[in-house]
TrEMBL record:
InterPro entries: Methyltransf_12, SAM-dependent_MTases_sf
Domain Methyltransferase type, chain residue ranges per copy: 51-150
Protein's organism: Dictyobacter kobayashii
Coiled coil: none
Family annotation (PANTHER family): TRANS-ACONITATE 2-METHYLTRANSFERASE, TRANS-ACONITATE 2-METHYLTRANSFERASE-RELATED
Family annotation (CDD domains): AdoMet_MTases
Any Pfam family the entry gives: Methyltransf_12
Gene3D superfamilies recorded: Vaccinia Virus protein VP39
Protein name from the UniProt record: Methyltransferase type 12 domain-containing protein
Length: 223
C-alpha cells in the first residue's frame, strides 16, 4: 500500500471510495460482537483494547470510538500518508493511538504490542495484499486476549462469468502491491490453518462491481 496510497491518493481516499467504504465498514461493524466488548469492563475491570491493522485513514477506528467511547484503541498502517489522514480524522479522540507497521509474516513479532493484549482485532480491505496470509493471521492470533475476536473483511474474487482475470490484471496495473483476492471459503480455510475458529461469516454487495466477505473468528483453545 505504500506505493499506491500516498500523496493525493491518500488525501482523496475517503471521498474516492466513500460508497465502497460505507458498505464494507457497515458489514464489518455488523459482524463484531459488540455485546461481548461492552461486558469487558464488568468482567475484566478494564476497558476493551482494540487494534485495527491496516487502519488506513481511520474510518473504522472513528466508528468504533463512537460505539465504544471508553475503549483504548490502536491503529497501524504501512503508509505514512494514510496515517496522516487518520491523524487528522481522529485528532479529537485521545483514546486512539496510531503507529506505522507492516503486515508480513516475518515482521509480526516486531509489532509494538504485548501478546494477548487485544479484545478485538480488525483487518479490513487488506487480505488481498498479504503475501503470506496464514503467517499474518498466526501473528495476529498471538495478540488476541482470551475470548478476543478477530474480524476480517475484504473484497471477494468473482466467479465466472465475471471476467475476473482481466479485472484483477487491471487492479495490479494501478496498484502493484495487490497480491490475490480470495473467496470466503478460501479465507475460512486459511483462518482454520492459522488456528482460528470461525464464529460468523457472510458475503455482501459492496457496489455495482465489488462483492465482499466478512468473518469473525477466535483462537482455537485446547479443551
Amino acid at each position: 500500500m505504500n506505493t499506491y496510497y500516498r500523496g493525493k491518493r491518500a488525501a482523496a481516499y475517503n471521498q474516492t471510495w466513500k460508497t465502497f467504504s460505507d458498505k464494507t465498514l457497515a458489514a464489518t461493524i455488523a459482524t463484531i460482537d459488540l455485546e461481548r466488548l461492552q461486558e469487558i469492563p464488568a468482567i475484566k475491570e478494564k476497558q476493551p483494547e482494540i487494534l485495527d491493522v491496516a487502519c488506513g485513514t481511520g474510518l473504522l477506528l472513528q466508528q468504533l470510538a463512537r460505539l465504544l467511547p471508553q475503549a483504548d484503541s490502536h491503529g497501524i498502517d504501512q503508509s505514512p500518508d494514510m496515517l496522516i489522514q487518520a491523524q487528522k480524522l481522529l485528532a479529537n479522540m485521545p483514546n486512539i493511538h496510531l503507529a506505522q507497521g507492516t503486515l508480513k509474516g516475518d515482521s509480526m513479532a516486531t509489532l509494538p504490542y504485548q501478546p494477548a493484549a487485544f479484545d478485538l482485532i480488525t483487518c479490513t480491505n487488506t487480505f488481498h495484499y498479504l503475501d503470506n496470509p496464514q503467517a499474518v493471521l498466526e501473528g495476529l492470533a498471538t495478540l488476541l486476549a482470551p475470548h478476543g475476536q478477530l474480524i476480517l473483511e475484504d473484497y471477494a474474487r468473482r466467479p465466472f462469468p465475471f471476467p475476473w482475470r482481466t479485472f484483477e490484471w487491471f487492479i495490479k496495473r494501478i496498484d502493484p502491491q495487490h497480491n490475490k483476492a480470495y473467496t470466503l471459503p478460501e479465507a475460512q480455510k486459511i483462518c482454520e490453518k492459522a488456528g482460528l475458529h470461525i464464529l460468523a461469516a457472510s458475503t455482501f454487495s459492496a457496489g455495482l462491481v465489488w462483492r465482499g466477505w466478512v468473518l469473525r473468528a477466535e483462537i482455537v483453545r485446547d479443551k
